[in-house]
């Protein structure tokens, strides 16, 4: 069920319980729904369908409640086995992946406590500011090349022809994927990113091929290290402790499925927001130095990461007076927290110079996004270049004809046809 913003604000709450928050039509404008919840039901149960199973999830929508949720890693855990009863585990979707896919459950977003701390210390050694900064020139070249091709045609799909190739080239080079394999790597990555749009079973061949290829690449870097992120992950060590192959593979998968996809959505949805707010577009064009706060505001405003990744109640607890049973799925709605009038002045206004912008778009606490510096760099370069060079940037279709991707956690467009 999808309603107009005004209808969300007046419909009975019992009606809103049937809202499919993963639907593309909902993703187009979820903000009225979240505003209603903040005002009348700040902790609200909805039913999600994950891996063809229904699961109740509690949406937490007010800024300060989401903030507390993200910081409390004792009451809210990432690994469902640390929260659910045996019966809950049997019924829960995605908790018993087949053998080849178990590697995907060993990453930073799936573990808690000492295991998480160990992994994060090791990964931090590889994902340094220096590593990110050396991608600046490559990102700029990718943005310029993509725009050169688009401007020769006079039109483009800003998702497939700009927002996607820029971070894809960067992440491939950052990981150390050889140029000769870039075409295969691109195809696998696009398949992984589109999992939320279709039957996940259709992506199984791509996932298996990707994991097999990456295992070979990790083995190669163990014997012949290069100046790349996989090599840095291979040699990262703390008190004689190092990452095993499965942990490295899980980190690579996380970078692609979480970090890379959110950057694509930030660039694409950010470009749309600028087109729809010509005063702010011109403001940035006349003051390019505004690009850093502009990207922070676009993260807040367009919500490329709409919800936090899954957390489970480690014990019976209450949020805003609402009882949540042990083992149940709890989701901090970042898109809602970042539009909360209790935290942001005129929250539904795009203000590229917004001061004190303490948005939660990259999360917070122990699960704060490790890829945030890279996402910021890529978005600053891509959007800054687009605004500077595309002086006649405009939509090629009506805004209500745009299609938003179905999915959970992230929010992004399928296509963004523009004239340049």
From TrEMBL:
GO terms for molecular function: heme binding; iron ion binding; monooxygenase activity; oxidoreductase activity, acting on paired donors, with incorporation or reduction of molecular oxygen. PROSITE patterns: CYTOCHROME_P450. The keyword Lyase does not apply. Keywords: Heme, Iron, Metal-binding, Monooxygenase, Oxidoreductase. InterPro entries: Cyt_P450 (IPR001128), Cyt_P450_B (IPR002397), Cyt_P450_CS (IPR017972), Cyt_P450_sf (IPR036396). The keyword Protein biosynthesis does not apply. It comes from the Bacteria. It holds the Pfam family p450. PANTHER family: CYTOCHROME P450 YJIB-RELATED, P450, PUTATIVE (EUROFUNG)-RELATED. Belongs to the cytochrome P450 family. This is Cytochrome P450 PksS. It comes from Deinococcus humi.
């Amino acid at each position: 069920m999808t309603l107009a913003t005004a209808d969300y604000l007046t419909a009975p709450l019992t009606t809103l319980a049937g809202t499919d928050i993963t639907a593309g039509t909902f993703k187009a404008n979820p903000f009225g729904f979240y505003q209603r919840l903040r005002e009348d039901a700040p902790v609200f149960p909805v039913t999600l369908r994950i891996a063809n199973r229904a699961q109740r999830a509690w949406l937490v929508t007010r800024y300060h409640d989401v903030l507390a949720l993200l910081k409390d890693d004792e009451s809210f855990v990432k690994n469902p086995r640390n929260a659910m009863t045996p019966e809950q585990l049997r019924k829960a979707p995605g908790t018993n992946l087949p053998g080849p896919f178990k590697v995907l459950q060993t990453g930073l977003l799936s573990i808690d406590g000492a295991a998480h701390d160990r992994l994060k210390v090791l990964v931090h050694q590889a994902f340094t500011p220096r590593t990110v900064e050396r991608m600046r020139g490559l990102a700029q070249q990718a943005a310029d090349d993509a725009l050169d091709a688009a401007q020769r045609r006079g039109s483009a799909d800003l998702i497939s022809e700009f927002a996607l190739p820029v971070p894809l080239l960067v992440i491939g080079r950052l990981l150390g994927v050889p140029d000769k394999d870039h075409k295969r790597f691109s195809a696998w990555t696009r398949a992984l990113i589109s999992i939320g749009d279709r039957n996940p079973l259709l992506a199984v061949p791509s996932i298996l091929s990707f994991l097999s290829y990456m295992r070979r690449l990790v083995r190669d870097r163990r014997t012949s290290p290069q100046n790349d992120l996989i090599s840095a992950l291979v040699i990262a060590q703390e008190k004689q402790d190092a990452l095993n192959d499965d942990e490295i593979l899980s980190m690579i998968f996380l970078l692609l499925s979480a970090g890379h996809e959110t950057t694509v959505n930030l660039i694409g949805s950010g470009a749309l927001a600028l087109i729809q707010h010509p005063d702010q577009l011109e403001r940035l064009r006349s003051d390019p130095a505004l690009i850093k706060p502009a990207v922070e505001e676009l993260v807040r405003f367009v919500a490329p990461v709409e919800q936090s990744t899954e957390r489970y109640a480690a014990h019976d607890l209450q949020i805003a007076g609402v009882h949540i049973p042990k083992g149940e799925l709890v989701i901090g709605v970042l898109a809602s927290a970042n539009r909360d009038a209790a935290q942001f002045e005129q929250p539904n206004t795009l203000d590229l110079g917004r001061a004190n912008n303490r948005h939660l778009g990259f999360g917070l606490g122990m699960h704060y996004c490790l890829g945030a510096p890279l996402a910021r760099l890529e978005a600053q370069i891509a959007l800054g270049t687009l605004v500077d060079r595309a002086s006649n940037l405009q939509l090629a279709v009506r805004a209500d004809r745009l299609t938003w991707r179905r999915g959970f956690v992230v929010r992004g467009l399928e296509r963004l046809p523009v004239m340049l």
